[in-house]
Design a protein that fits this description.
By secondary structure, the chain is an alpha/beta fold. The protein is built from twelve helices and twelve strands. Strand 1, helix 2 and strand 2 form a beta-alpha-beta unit.
Amino acid sequence: MKAMKRTRPLALVILLLLVFVWTGEIRGQSIVDGAKKEGKVVFYSSLTIQEIDQIAVPFTKKYPFIKVEPFRGNSEQLLQKITLEERAGRPQHDVAQFNAFEEWQLQKLGLLQRYKSPEAKNYPDIYKDPEGYWTVIYANYLVLGYNPKQVKEEELPKKWEDLLLPKWKGDKFAMDRDEGVWYGGLSFAWGRERADKFIKALALQDPSIRKGHTLIATLLSSGEFPLGLVYAHRVEEMKAKGASIDWVSLDPIIVTPNIIAMGKNTAHPNAAKLLIDFCLSKEGQTILQQQQFRTPASPDIPPTSPKMDPKKLKLFLADKRVADQYDRFAKEYYELFVKGKPE
């Protein structure tokens, strides 16, 4: 009798697990059946055409009944296109994947639809919207890059304020012409007073201002300047190809997220869910890491090197607080670093 009583809780747990699995399978099959009827998914992305293909080809191999129709642009272009299409009453996109700062504007405008992908269950809470409107697909780490042929390891700055030393004045350090996110991230990580003091002093160093982190990394590796503010994943990609470039971790590393979300008025909701699931799955995240050298959001994907291990880095996510005040940070940065300089 006692043995029977002990087995009842176990039997109940097993039954609940079976119901959970069965329900999940029904839900999954329902989405697949719906996607078969829809036949396609319209994908707005800031990835390159080659990178989109790296996602689309294995996705369509898995779901041969779905055609991926991509539209590529930078984040600002995609935000503008989506809002204009909505105003015209002709929404086109099913899935949007680009910079979080622009996609958060879509959320404010009510142009995203809730979808909590089961693939994101293990993602950190800061990498997914609590209401299910978006999930971070990969992260960009803004770091100090350097050319090992020009700077010895012992000479490298140990903290961001070391960039204020006289030896780094002028064309010894390069920055993008739009670093409002970095400035905003430092402001929330350090506090406004310290960040303002640092940024104003850095502007007096008269750094080289260029357009694009990839361009800065390329020029850095060619010896144009010894230091530059770059993305860690791009440096890792170039290092793997033999370029003379590396990066150092300073506290904090400002992280800018890239997110994926479903459009509010999507015509192909089931196909959209499958594409989002794929991008957030182990397979999709591995593609981002191994083929595109990006930093996947999934904690289940091991880092490409110990140096890229997020557990060993002092990361600070540029979140909605920065996004809400981005215009101010961008304007102040422009006034300090760009205005008055020749194009």
